[in-house]
C-alpha cells in the first residue's frame, strides 16, 4: 500500500512523459508529413505565401528538392546535375525577402527551377544537351531566358535530362535517353515512355524534384512529355522566348517554354522568360508585340472558357478510336460546353497528309541544324568540339558510352551531308508557308476559332512548322496508369486566349495527381 502512491505517481509520470514524448513524436511526424504534403504539389503561389508568412524559407524548399533528387533520381534519372550554388542562391533570396517590400518581388523569387540541359548557364553547371561531347565546354554567357530567371531571383536548381541532343542525333525512338544520365523513367509507370525530348523536365516536375521547369520544343518536345507526365506545358509562339544560348535544332522552329504542374505555375514562368534578347534579336523583337501589358497572369480566369470557339478536327481523333483517350474526350467536350465554350465540330485541316509526311519539315531542318549547331559550337569559349563533323567524330571515338552501335547518329550524318540553304530547302520553306496558309491559318480564320482542341501532342507538327503556340493540360490516365493530355493550339500571339482556355479547363477538371512510381 505504502508504495502505491509513489508507484502510481511514478507510473503516471512515466506515462505522462511517454505520452508527452509520443505526442511530441506524433506532432513531429505530423508536422513533417504536413510539410511533405504541402511542399509536394505546392504551386509557386502557395510557396510565395509560405515565404511571406515566415513558414518556409527558400533554403528549406531548395533542400527539400535536393533531398528528393537524391532519393528519387537514381531511379528516375530526370536530373543530370544539381547546381552547387543552389543553396547560396536560396540564401540570397531569403535575405532579399527580408529587406524588400512585400509584393515587390517576382513570382519566381526564391523558387527552385530545373533547366533542360540544352539551355546554357554560365556557372558551375555544364551545358551538354546530354552528350559527353559537350562536357567541359564553356558557354559565353547565360541563355537569354536564364538571364531573366536570375534577375527574377529564381534559384537555378539544376539541369534536367533530355533525349540526347533534343532527339536530333538519331531517328530511332529511345526517348528520355542521354549518355550523361542514362534512361529516364516515367514516374507514372516505370515501363512506359517518358516521351521527349524535354523528358527530364517532365519526369522531375511529375515527381516533385523541383518547383517549376523549362523545356524546349522544335516539334513536340514540350507538348509530348507534358502529356505523358500529367503536366502543363506551354510551347510559346516562335520568338516570344529567346533561343539565345540554347543548343539549337533550328531557329525556324525552336522555342523555350515552361513545364509545370499547373497552368498558373507555367504562366508565372512564362511572364518571367518572355521578351527581347539581343542574342536572338530578330525573332524576339518581332514576337515582343504579342506580349500583353501587365503580363499573362491576368488571363488566369476561372470562367476562361466562356464564349470560346474551339475547333475539332475529326481526323486527329480517329487515331485514338477505341482507346481510353476517346472516352475521356467525350466527357471533356461536355465539360467544355458546360463551361460555356462553343465546339465547332467536323472540321478538316487541308493538306494534313502532306504535313504529316514531314517531307518539307525534315528537309529544311536537316540543313538548318548543321548551320545552327556549327554557329553555337563556334561561339563557345572552350569546347572539345567545334562543328557537327567534330561531334560525329567524337561519337565514333566514344561508341560505347554514346551507344552509337545501338542508337546510331543517322540524323547527324544526314545533316552533315547537307550544303546550306539550297534550292531544295527554299522549296521546303515555300511548301511550309503554303501549308500554314492553306491549313491551320485558314481553318482558324474561316471558323473564327479561338483554339484547336486535340488529344496528346498529335497537333505538334502543325504548330511547329508555323511557329504557332500550344498548351498541354492533363486530361486523363490510360489503363496502364500512363497520363495523357489535351492540347489547345492557336495562331501566333494567341497565348492570352490559350491561357484562359487552359486555365478554365484545368479548374473545371483538376485531373493531375502525383505519380505512384510503379512498374
Ligand atoms: C561539370 O563537368 C565537370 C567535368 O567536366 C565536373 O567535374 C563538374 O562536377 C560538372 N559540374 C557539375 C555541377 O556537376
Ligand atoms: C514541295 O512541294 C512540292 C509539291 O507541291 C513537291 O514537289 C516538292 O518536292 C516539295 N519540296 C520539298 C522539299 O519537300
Ligand atoms: C505499366 O505498363 C505496363 C505495360 O507497359 C503494364 O503491363 C503495367 O500493368 C503497368 N503498370 C501499372 C502500375 O499500371
UniProtKB/TrEMBL annotation:
Domain Amidase: 61-457
Acetylation in keyword set: no
UniProt signal peptide: 1-34
Pfam families: Amidase
Keywords recorded for this protein, A-Z: Signal
Keyword Signal: yes
InterPro entries, sorted: Amidase_dom, AS_sf
The protein, known as: Amidase domain-containing protein
Amino acid at each position: 500500500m505504502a508504495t502505491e502512491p509513489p508507484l502510481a505517481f511514478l507510473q503516471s509520470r512515466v506515462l505522462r512523459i511517454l505520452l508527452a514524448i509520443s505526442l511530441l513524436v506524433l506532432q513531429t511526424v505530423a508536422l513533417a508529413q504536413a510539410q511533405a504534403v504541402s511542399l509536394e504539389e505546392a504551386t509557386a503561389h502557395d510557396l510565395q505565401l509560405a515565404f511571406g508568412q515566415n513558414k518556409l524559407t527558400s533554403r528549406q524548399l531548395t533542400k527539400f528538392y535536393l533531398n528528393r533528387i537524391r532519393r528519387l533520381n537514381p531511379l528516375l534519372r530526370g536530373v543530370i546535375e544539381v547546381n552547387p550554388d543552389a543553396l547560396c542562391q536560396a540564401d540570397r533570396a531569403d535575405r532579399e525577402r527580408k529587406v524588400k517590400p512585400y509584393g515587390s518581388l517576382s513570382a519566381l523569387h526564391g523558387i527552385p527551377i530545373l533547366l533542360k540541359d540544352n539551355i546554357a548557364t554560365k556557372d558551375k553547371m555544364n551545358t551538354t544537351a546530354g552528350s559527353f561531347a559537350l562536357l567541359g565546354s564553356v558557354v559565353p554567357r547565360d541563355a537569354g531566358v536564364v538571364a531573366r530567371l536570375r534577375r527574377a531571383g529564381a534559384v537555378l536548381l539544376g539541369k534536367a535530362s533530355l533525349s540526347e541532343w533534343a532527339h536530333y542525333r538519331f531517328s530511332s525512338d529511345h526517348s528520355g535517353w542521354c549518355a550523361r544520365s542514362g534512361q529516364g523513367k516515367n514516374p507514372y509507370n516505370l515501363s512506359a515512355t517518358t516521351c521527349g525530348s524535354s523528358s527530364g523536365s517532365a519526369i522531375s516536375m511529375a515527381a516533385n524534384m523541383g518547383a517549376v521547369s523549362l523545356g524546349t520544343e522544335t516539334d513536340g518536345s514540350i507538348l509530348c512529355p507534358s502529356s505523358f507526365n500529367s503536366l502543363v506545358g506551354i510551347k510559346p509562339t516562335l520568338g516570344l522566348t529567346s533561343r539565345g544560348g540554347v543548343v539549337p535544332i533550328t531557329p525556324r522552329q525552336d522555342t523555350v517554354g515552361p513545364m509545370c504542374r499547373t497552368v498558373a505555375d507555367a504562366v508565372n514562368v512564362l511572364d518571367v522568360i518572355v521578351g527581347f534578347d539581343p542574342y536572338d534579336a530578330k525573332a524576339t523583337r518581332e514576337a515582343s508585340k504579342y506580349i500583353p501589358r501587365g503580363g499573362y497572369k491576368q488571363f488566369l480566369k476561372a470562367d476562361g472558357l466562356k464564349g470560346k470557339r474551339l475547333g475539332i478536327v475529326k481526323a486527329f481523333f480517329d487515331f485514338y478510336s477505341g482507346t481510353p483517350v476517346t472516352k475521356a474526350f467525350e466527357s471533356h467536350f461536355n465539360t467544355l460546353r458546360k463551361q460555356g465554350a462553343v465546339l465547332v465540330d467536323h472540321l478538316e485541316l487541308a493538306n494534313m497528309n502532306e504535313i504529316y509526311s514531314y517531307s518539307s519539315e525534315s528537309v529544311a531542318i536537316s540543313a538548318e541544324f548543321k548551320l545552327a549547331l556549327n554557329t553555337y559550337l563556334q561561339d563557345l569559349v572552350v569546347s572539345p568540339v567545334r562543328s557537327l563533323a567534330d561531334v560525329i567524330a567524337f561519337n565514333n571515338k566514344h561508341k560505347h558510352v554514346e551507344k552509337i552501335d545501338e542508337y546510331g547518329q543517322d540524323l547527324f550524318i544526314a545533316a552533315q551531308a547537307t550544303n546550306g540553304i539550297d534550292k531544295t530547302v527554299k522549296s521546303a520553306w515555300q511548301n511550309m508557308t503554303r501549308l500554314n496558309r492553306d491549313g491551320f491559318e485558314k481553318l482558324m480564320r474561316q471558323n473564327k476559332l479561338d483554339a484547336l482542341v486535340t488529344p496528346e501532342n498529335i497537333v505538334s507538327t502543325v504548330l511547329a512548322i508555323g511557329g504557332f503556340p500550344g498548351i498541354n493540360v492533363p486530361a486523363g490516365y490510360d489503363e496502364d496508369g500512363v497520363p495523357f493530355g489535351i492540347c489547345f493550339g492557336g495562331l501566333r500571339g494567341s497565348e492570352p486566349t490559350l491561357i484562359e482556355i487552359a486555365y478554365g479547363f484545368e479548374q473545371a477538371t483538376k485531373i493531375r495527381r502525383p505519380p505512384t512510381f510503379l512498374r
